[in-house]
Amino acid sequence: MELIEAIILAVLAASTPLLIAATGELVTERSGVLNLGVEGMMIVGAACGFAGAWLTGSVFVGALFGIVAGTMMSLIFALMALGLAVNQVATGLALTILGVGLSGLIGAGFVGERITPAVHLAVPGLTDIPLVGRVLFGEDAFVYFSIALVIGVWWFLYRTRAGLILRACGDNHVSAHALGYPVLRIRTFAVMFGGACAGLAGAYLPLAYTPFFIPGMTAGRGWIALALVVFSSWRPGRLVIGAYLFGAVTILQLHAQGWGIGIPSQFMSALPYLATVIVLVLLSRARSGGSTAPAALGTVFVPDR
Amino acid sequence: MRKSLLALATGLLLAGSVSAASPADKLKVGFIYLGPIGDLGWTYQHDLARQALVKELGDQIETTYLENVPEGPDAERSIEQLVRAGNKLIFTTSFGYMDPTLKVAKKYPNVHFEHATGYKRNPNMSTYSAKWWQGRYIQGLIAAKMSKSGVLGYIGSFPIPEVVSGINATMLAAQTIKPDIKVKIIWANTWFDPGKEADAAKALIDQGADVIMQHTDSPAAMQIASERGKLAFGQDSEMIKFGPKTQLTSILDTWGPYYIERVKAELAGTWKSQDSWGGLDSHMFAMAPYTNMPDDVKKMAEDAQAAIIAGKLHPFKCPIVGQDGKPVECKGGDHLDDGQILGMNFYVKGIDDKLPGK
Fold first, then answer.
1. Neighbours of B22 (CB within 10 A)
2. Tell me, what's the pLDDT at A175?
């Protein structure tokens, strides 16, 4: 019983940064912009998030620092890719390189420092319920926020007029423009939202997951978040499945190794990727045929004035 | 592609910032680092050694380093860049730089190279490494004494001989204290991913391990053990900051004396290609202070350390029985010879797990 609870808690923690970053990127891509700089925005968010928490002693302020840092990074992208209509793939890759370097610079003074990590919630009576108590009421606030975030994004995309307009920009920016919508402004907001989420996801690592800062600590999670968006066919619901599945298989394969079930560890390490890709591909095949990618994804749009 | 772009970018950036004009008579010494110098582990220790070198011989040499250089073919460009910048002695500090270093070494016979932890040499390319398994043996003794559950948790990076020999040394030592001690091994399949290392530590503790050992580079496992009130050993560097009541000791890479010795040889014109495999006796690594343990355990650890230094205790003393129950051939007299340890690809008896790929 206790072991199952421990595993679920570990899965939630491992999946949360992926879910937050991927949700942000999903909105960005739904508006028609491909920002490959998630890893770069995340790592800067991690450095600034840690710096904020260390300077003020508050995890909440740290998270805000992370969000602001991620947004600033995404504005660089927006300026290049939207304002100057530079190739989005190249700009995104450059943003990651910039982010890795910048985070090392920002974080250099904080390496080896410690902070008090995000507290785990405690609701009297509820958190003590066996098995489900700590899962439902006893994790850190980031975990529950990430779920609220993805529900909010789903509601926004499919139940609001603004969400419909954003998706229209992603599918056909010429038509959206012709209808009088400010395509570039909408895309800029979508890019900023993606940056804010990536920054928060990055900040989650030093604020809650492993409460210290080390350069390169995102270790490729930004790329996994990007892949999750593609394999979820740009749908928030499947994104949740993908993120938790990835986290679950990651944690379970570690436990399986500890139990010594004798499957080569190299294969076990590849399993989260394999399982997530297979399940999400099967899901998208079962539901709808054909590609569901935003039709204008990654294409440059220069409005004629 | 991302990695090569990264290497190129960092390479250009660093080359731009570090190469300052200097008197031509100073010997230029270059370093290639795997991680950032702030990784608090492997690269951090190499850079501490470089700083010691500058402190000792700073009036005669000038050092340059490139950090975050990915292993593999891309490293070649970075090494060659150091050659072109006029470095006459170049340390390449990770196993994966082996072939690139050799390739560049053959191209520039007048430049001397020092490659860490590899086995390929050239008349102008030396190798150096440390017998960390001596330290692992001491850790095994401590772990067996301190474990209440009788289950040790071991986070491995990759199932290569260096890591496998560490696991075996740990278990051989632990079995001398508690013959039926168990070890749970989780391979992270990475050297550095704090999140994953933390997850592995959590899994080991959740499965009953109460002393955590690691062969990965970040202090994440130490931090988790500290949070859960368990004990742990650091890796590469001093990690006691992350577990003041948790760290028992840590294997500290201390490359400084070696770097100073080799640069002095280069300055004196006596540099020769060689293979150095130093242990506790030659200060290639050191043990962090023994902390968070009773005095008798501490004394036992110190005695074992003294015995290893004096050559009275060899962690791989025969007879050694493999997992299959058969004794391992003893090529080094009363202990395994260096070749057997360098190529170790089997578990000793008592490890209740299967070596990946076997």
1. 11
2. 93
Q: Cα A203 vs. chain centroid, distance in angstroms?
A: 11
Q: Given CB atoms, is A211 within the 8 Å cutoff of chain B?
A: yes
Q: What CA–CA distance (Å, rounded) separates A229 from B215?
A: 33
What distance in Å separates the CA atoms of residue B234 and residue B222, rounded to the nearest whole number? 7
What pLDDT does B21 receive? Answer: 42
Would you say residue B46 lies in a domain? yes
Of the candidates B36, B202, B241, which has its C-beta nearest A215's C-beta? B36
Query: Cβ of A114 and B184 within 8 Å?
Result: no
At B20 the pLDDT is 43
A103 touches chain B (CB under 8 A): no
* One domain for residues B50 and B94: yes
- Reported ipTM: the value is 0.88
Distance from the first to the final alpha carbon of chain A: 65
Cβ neighbourhood burial of A141 (10 Å; 0-12, 13-18, 19+): middle
User: To the nearest whole angstrom, how far is the Cα of A102 from the nearest Cα of chain B?
Assistant: 11
Residues of B in contact with A265 (CB under 8 A): 156, 159, 186-187, 189, 356
Determine, yes or no, domain membership for B19.
no
Residue at B357 is within a domain? no
Domain that residue B115 falls in: 24-131+255-282
Q: What percent of chain A has pLDDT over 70?
A: 97
Q: State yes or no: pLDDT of A16 exceeds 80.
A: yes
Same domain as B127, residue B76? yes
Residue A210 has its nearest CB partner, among B203, B204, B220, at B220
| Residue among A243, A51, A227 at smallest CA distance from A146 | A243
Compare all CA atoms of chain A with the CA of B10 and give the residue at the minimum distance. A101
Structural domains in chain B (count): 2
Going by the DSSP 8-state scheme, the letter that residue B285 receives in this structure is: E
| Residue B113 shares a structural domain with residue B81 | yes
Nearest CA in chain B to A106: B38
Question: Can you give the pLDDT at residue B166?
Answer: 96
CATH number at residue B246: 3.40.50.2300
Are B136 and B157 members of one domain?
yes
Shared-domain flag, residues B293 and B168:
yes
Closest CA in chain A for residue B242: A114
> Residue A118: what pLDDT?
87
Q: Which residues of A touch B65 (CB under 8 A)?
A: none
